[in-house]
Specification:
The chain contains 13 helices and 7 strands. The chain is of the alpha+beta class and 431 residues long. The protein has a 5-stranded mixed sheet. It has a two-stranded antiparallel sheet with strand order 1-3. A hairpin with a 2-residue loop joins strand 4 and strand 5. It starts with a helix and ends with a helix. The C terminus is likely disordered. The chain binds adenosine-5'-diphosphate.
């Protein structure tokens, strides 16, 4: 007998048995019978043509019909159905077809079933990956929204805190001014100094919070002026000498090629960034340690390195410390001492420093062999700053062009006109 005739012979038994086993209710069974009939028709087509891909549209539709909850529970809905189809085919063929013809049917249907199992497994896995990646996208969006609201909250809270802080600062200054100069060592003056120190520290923290939200929202504006790295480092050295001495540390600032070269940048912001790195080096180095500032000139860049003999940084944290609130270590051991050994702050210093360096078109990174408070492997922070020959801000560019030894612009801007009055018309200038 022809294979197709054999398949036609067992068609109804096959459909009845599978539908009874897999679909319990009457209503469900009816539509399932329709699906099974389609499957059987396509199975026949596949066998006749030798191309199992005939089943693809139906198999894909079955896989795609999986619900969201099935995907969440990672249930494989099709393999039990396909397993049942294989088993029932075996039973029905054995019961209704002579042994010789049965072998022929098995030989024809088995490769198609293997193909169907493989195809559905692949499509199910693909659907799963799509589902997980959608879920990840949703989580990412939620996190972004949360981060944005956190950043907005920080900005608003910081601005709100500034007003009462200004009042406290003003009143404590007025209170101190009530005391004559000779009373400067009185108990009251000591108490007022305590208030002033506290408010100064609070102002620093609030300013950091505002800086972080400015960086987060790409709103940090730079005031480009000529900058000399050596001047910034000397200033920082002067400011930190007392702290370094209190901690019996040594701060060495070496001169290096490019150290005294003029570049354009925001001096206040760059100073803030370099001081953050130096303050951290002091903070995370035990008493008696050494902090060395060095650097080199690279084509188009100046690289500054700040190396300490401190506790070092775990290799896993080398990037994390530049993230907002990325301070590492146990938060319960948190101390707000600015330069006390391991006196961690709120974890905003390095993200702000990175924001400042990034805004200058530079880069910052750190190297350390790991964290160890006993052996103190130390850390080396690298800051790469582009050498900017002309201010990117056109207003200051005009002003500083002679200082940077750049050729004057061939246009009639005010500066050039004033320097070369004979070429211009005085009446025009007055106008
Ligand atoms: P913090 O206010 O905690 O100092 P920072 O953003 O300045 O915040 O630094 C983030 C974290 O990076 C710190 O909590 C500290 O764990 C680590 N860190 C920064 N500088 C150093 C350093 N020189 N040596 C060791 N750890 C450092």
């Amino acid at each position: 007998m022809q294979i197709i005739e054999l398949l036609v012979k067992i068609r109804q038994v096959w459909i009845d048995r599978i539908s009874h086993r897999l679909a319990r209710g009457e209503g469900v069974r009816e539509s399932f019978i329709h699906e099974l009939s389609q499957f059987y028709d396509l199975l026949q087509q596949a066998i006749v043509t030798g191309d199992p891909a005939w089943l693809d549209p139906l198999l894909d539709a079955w896989v795609d019909a999986r619900t969201k909850s099935e995907l969440e529970k990672q249930e494989t809905s099709l393999s039990p159905i396909l397993n049942q189809i294989v088993l029932t085919t075996y039973e029905v063929v054995s019961e209704n077809i002579a042994e010789k013809d049965a072998l022929e049917i098995f030989g024809a249907v088995l490769p198609v079933y293997v193909y169907a199992l493989d195809r559905t497994a692949q499509r199910e896995a693909q659907l799963h990956i799509e589902h997980i990646s959608n879920e990840l996208d949703n989580v990412r969006l939620t996190l972004e929204r949360l981060d944005k609201s956190k950043s907005d909250f920080i900005a608003v809270a910081a601005h709100e805190l500034k007003t009462p802080l200004t009042l406290i600062e003003g009143y404590s200054t007025m209170l101190r001014d009530q005391f004559p100069i000779i009373d400067q060592s009185s108990q009251s003056i000591i108490l007022i100094s305590g208030i002033k120190n506290g408010t100064r520290r609070l102002r620093e923290i609030i300013d950091d919070m505002i800086d972080v939200s400015l960086i987060d929202n790409d709103m940090m504006s730079l005031n480009f002026q000529p900058v000399w790295i050596n001047q910034l480092l000397t200033l920082a050295e002067q400011e930190l000498t007392e702290t370094v001495n209190t901690r019996s540390q040594t701060l060495e600032i070496n001169s290096f090629p490019g150290y005294d070269e003029m570049t354009f940048g925001d001096p206040e912001r760059l100073y803030q960034g370099l001081k953050n790195i130096l303050t951290n080096a002091i903070k995370y180095t035990p008493d008696g340690g050494t902090i060395t500032v060095d650097g080199r000139k690279l084509p188009g860049f100046i690289e500054i390195t700040v190396k300490d003999t401190g506790i070092g940084i775990d290799v896993a944290d080398l990037e994390r410390i530049f993230e907002k609130f990325g301070r590492i270590g146990d938060a319960s051991l948190h101390s707000s001492g600015k330069t006390k050994f391991k006196g961690g702050g709120p974890g905003l210093g390095l993200p702000i420093t990175k924001g400042i360096i990034d805004a200058h078109g530079g880069a910052i990174w750190v190297e350390s062999d790991g964290y160890d408070e006993i052996t103190c492997p130390g850390s080396t922070f690298h800051v790469l700053l582009p050498i900017i020959k002309e201010s990117p801000d056109f207003r200051t560019a005009k002003l500083f062009r002679p200082l940077a030894n750049l050729p004057k612009e061939e246009n009639n801007d005010e500066l050039i006109s004033e320097e070369q009055p004979e070429k211009g018309n005085p009446t025009d200038l007055d106008a």
